[in-house]
Amino acid sequence: MAPPLFGTSADARFWLCLDCCGLSCACASQAIILSSMYAVSGDLAAHGGGGWATPLNLAAFNAVGLLASVSHLRAMLSDPGAVPKRATPLARDEERARLAASAASGYRTRAKGWCHRCCSYKPPRAHHDSVTNRCIVKMDHYCPW
Questions:
Q1: I need a labelling partner for 86 at 20 to 30 A (CA). Which of 59, 124, 133, 145 fits?
Q2: Is 49 among the domain residues?
Q3: Which residues span the membrane (predicted)?
């Protein structure tokens, strides 16, 4: 069976959160960008006043709009730093976990550095994302959509 083209699984070719709410927000964002490009371009072409400034303004606005659209799509389709399913701790992380376990007061029952939802290793600063069902490194700088 061929791996999926889009998704949040480890074997998907392109990262894409297939959540209905997120996809509708992403489509709305793209529609706003493209419709504003269409409206402003039409208005500038019809009422630009002629001269050399109109084509220059039109080109500059459409270039910025195109860059915004492409940047949004690239951010949407790139892996945010999901932890691979077969990830193993580095030697320094194992030592840090051993020292933390020896100094622990005993009230914590879950092992630090292990995700009980993914059943896999979770590096420092990684948190489980319930939308994509994966652990994401530096999740404080991440939006699934």
A1: 145
A2: yes
A3: none
